[in-house]
Amino acid sequence: MRLATAMRGFVPVMALAVSTGAFSLPALADEHQKRGGGKKSAAASVPCGDSAALVTAISTANTTPGGGTVSLATGCTYTLTSAAATGSHGPDGLPIITGNVTISGIGATISRSATAADFRIAEVAPGGTLTVSGVTLSGGRATTPTAGTDGGGILDRGTLNMSQSTVTGNTASNDGGGVAVAPGGTATFSTTGLTQNRAGDGGGLHVNTSASVTYNSGTISGNTADSTGGGVASYGTTLLSSATIQNNTTTNFEGGGVFGGGGNLTVNASQVTGNKAGSFGGGIANLGSTLQVQTTSVSGNTATLNGGGLFSHAGTTQLIGGSVTGNTANGGQGGGIFSDGGTVSLSGTTVTANTPNNCVPTLAGCTG
């Protein structure tokens, strides 16, 4: 979802590689299963590469009282050749998650076949909980009205928990190439990568209004959005903590790394580096969020127009500590920070060595 900005004549577009190591199922998986009520089920082991058995195991886990666990074979790839379910949001490679399902593996991959019809990998329904540990999800495509247009990898309308996993190479024509968290949905990511995904808005991750996301200790890299938020587009409540947000791109509009269009957005103890915007805000763009950037390095980002490091047009932006250095506004002003609306305040933030200048207009704590 992208909000139009009449003054610039925009037309709204509705729109990590994590190395596989010795992963263990996190405690949160057990906790979520216990919350479901009843006795925790034994794990169902899926033979290497047997996608039909994977679909069957998830269907069983969906209906198991207290939840079910699906264990994938170490290092194996499960290639989906057709949709297992088709709901009102389009086809999904796996059964729609309506119960309490855990998928665990060590370096395992679930992917859509390159020759298959378009479908996303997974969808979590309201009331459903999906926990993924040590698994890569790749190749999903939500790209047509019949295939759905949100969440190329995962469409989360319920509760999603991911740890030590990767969502890579997925595509959505509207929101969330990697993951789309729909209104009312919640998602938690721990040491999880969102890489090389593409969408209209939110190439790696899209957080919709009234949705909530906590992202901790992972890399969001190499994602592309045609419109806003190459790495992340947020309209809900989003915390990005100890994240590396790098080398993401918007083709046409704002927020090469991160875009805030509403709600509360916090970037804490992170690195926002090497991102590029087709217009404003190479690193971060705020068009309506309550944005806090704390002890974060914003460096080496590029905007085609204004605000190489950070662009503010609406909302409130507060920078606390950290630095904004070495960013570039190629065709405009404010290589470090550019503001044409909203409020921007700095507290102990270093803004230096940006091109062609640091802050436009001049801000308290930043000149030139």
List keywords for this structure.
single chain; mainly beta; 3-stranded parallel β-sheet; 2 helices; 6% helix; disordered N terminus; PbH1; Right-handed parallel beta-helix repeat-containing protein; Pectin_lyase_fold/virulence; Autotransporter_pectin_lyase_C; signal
Walkthrough of the structure:
This protein is mostly beta strands. The chain has a domain at 6-18 and 165-360. 6% of the residues lie in helices and 42% in strands. It contains two helices and 39 strands. The strands form five sheets. It has a 29-stranded parallel β-sheet that branches. The chain has a three-stranded parallel β-sheet with strand order 17-21-25, with no helix packed on it. A three-stranded parallel β-sheet has the order 29-32-35, with no helix packed on it. Mean pLDDT is 90; it is low at 3-38.
Present the secondary structure layout.
Elements: H1 27-35, E1 44-46, H2 51-62, E2 68-72, E3 77-80, E4 85-87, E5 90-92, E6 100-112, E7 122-124, E8 129-138, E9 141-142, E10 154-156, E11 159-163, E12 166-168, E13 171-172, E14 179-181, E15 186-190, E16 193-195, E17 198-199, E18 205-207, E19 212-216, E20 219-221, E21 224-225, E22 232-234, E23 237-241, E24 244-246, E25 249-250, E26 258-260, E27 264-268, E28 271-273, E29 276-277, E30 284-294, E31 297-299, E32 302-303, E33 310-320, E34 323-325, E35 328-329, E36 337-339, E37 343-347, E38 350-352, E39 359-360
Parallel strand pairs: 1-2, 2-6, 3-6, 6-8, 7-10, 8-11, 8-12, 9-13, 10-14, 11-15, 12-16, 14-18, 15-19, 16-20, 17-21, 18-22, 19-23, 20-24, 21-25, 22-26, 23-27, 24-28, 26-30, 27-30, 28-31, 29-32, 30-33, 31-34, 32-35, 33-36, 33-37, 34-38, 36-39
Antiparallel strand pairs: 4-5
